[in-house]
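Sequence only, no structure available. Ideas?
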Amino acid sequence: MPFHRYHPYQDRVDVPSEERSWPSARIDRAPLWVPVDLRDGNQALAEPMDTGRKRRFFDLLVSMGFKEIEVGYPSASRADFDFVRDLAALGASGGIPDDVSIVVFTPAKPELIDRTFESIEGLPRAVVHLYIPTSPIWRDIVLGRSRAQVQGVVTEAAAHMARLADARPGADIRFQFSPETFNLTEPDYVLELCDGLTELWDASPDRPVTHNLPATVEIATPNVYADQIEYLHRHLARRASVILSVHPHNDRGTGVACAELAVLAGAQRVEGCLFGNGERTGNVDLVTLALNLYAQGVDPMVDFSDIDAVREVVEHCNRLPVHPRHPYAGDLVHTAFSGTHQDAISKGFAHHALRAAELGVAESEAPWAVPYLPIDPADIGRSYEAVIRVNSQSGKGGMAYLLRTRHGIDLPQRMRPDFSRVVQEATDDSGQEASAKELYELFRATYVGPGKKSGHAALSSWSTDRAPDGTHRFTCTLQVGSHTGHFEGTGNGPLSAFVAALAAAGITVDILDYSEHATGAGGGSEAVAYAECGVDGVVCWGAGLNTSVLTASVQAVLAAVNRAEAAR
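Reply:
I predicted one. Tokens follow.
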């Protein structure tokens, strides 16, 4: 591949070398998140949103708690203009919360600025976002203008915006400036442009200007972008009157890292899209950014408590699916197929429940520490149903977890490797995932069925009684192979008496492990019993399910006997 055709970032833009402070910084509060789905994201769609989809998306963003929302490019299309007019009518009637500001986007052309201001007529609050490309390659190839000429265009456009805003004294209109392709622009030039507009617009702490610094096309590692942001953060005039904003794209796949490092470097505001929609590889993903903070114990200041509902709206409006591996929101991100992962998660859930009980709080309130799950899926509206799923890569912990949580079957530890082999053989043969229902059916067919159906040994009738000396007698009609007979045995308990009756029928059984519990099914009335038996030298597990614990235990031993004969 002709890699020599491409130049590293240091040959394309000068990044001032200063002592960095951002590497030691910490993010302890969320920046101002500004979704640009309705403008930047919408421009990138093969089928731009119609008014109905835009309104549904806007309502979602408001309900989630976003305080600034970029809603369109009113001078670019009739659809965008009309949508802003609809919002203006909504805002005039009090239908937009008082703490939500509408942002509209305009290039630095007087006639397009006029059209933009026309669209926001009647809005009680608005931010007018002015942009122009500023980097050498854009100045030379796209605009055909020098640094001074571009600055002149920007100054004229900004002054025109100020005059139009002054003509509406009753409206709260603030200004935003984006030097597009900031990350490829000379830092001293960006500083000159921004400081000029800060002064022209007479920014103050109670009426700040937003300077938005886009990584329009990613060109370098995220630390370089952080250095560029920190340079502006340190040197901007009237810093207390400036909201420093960033707008990372994802061309190198590092948009999230760029945004996080930019916040460490002094950015106070981040523009992006839900789930990363946008031109080419997309804008930075606000969902990932916000939930990354949440996972660090920082309030993200937006509500993702029902992430599947958020995703459904975004997929409908964008007509684009969210990838199943998308951080936090994808169908598979809280799912483990690997056996070792499943075992760790299963143990983590058990430890979490125990810890909550020790603290005397609900599990939903207890500190979260479960392996492989950075946040509790329930916090974002996800159930635990899909956390562990079983295929041929899965292990004993995963299938045991599903049987326990979905069907009340808590396999003994010693039995789990045996069932794991059964599951792996089934999934290897099918090549497909096994659902919790299929696992349960496989458990019943493998371990319960042989104790209830006709096999090498079958009980047609049986009874027990207890002698005055405390011993138990087991009397039964038992078919062994083709022969049927009446047999009885005595022992310390009903099960040992049954083993003695089997011995009288010529079947030598040694119970190696036994356990029982209620399944929780049918209001907790059904019992399950597990028996590991050595049968004439062959060791097998059996299980029984019945409303009677004794019947379940007899079925479990009989199932082990028949499985041993089948394995012989």
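The mean pLDDT is 91.
Hope that gets you unstuck.
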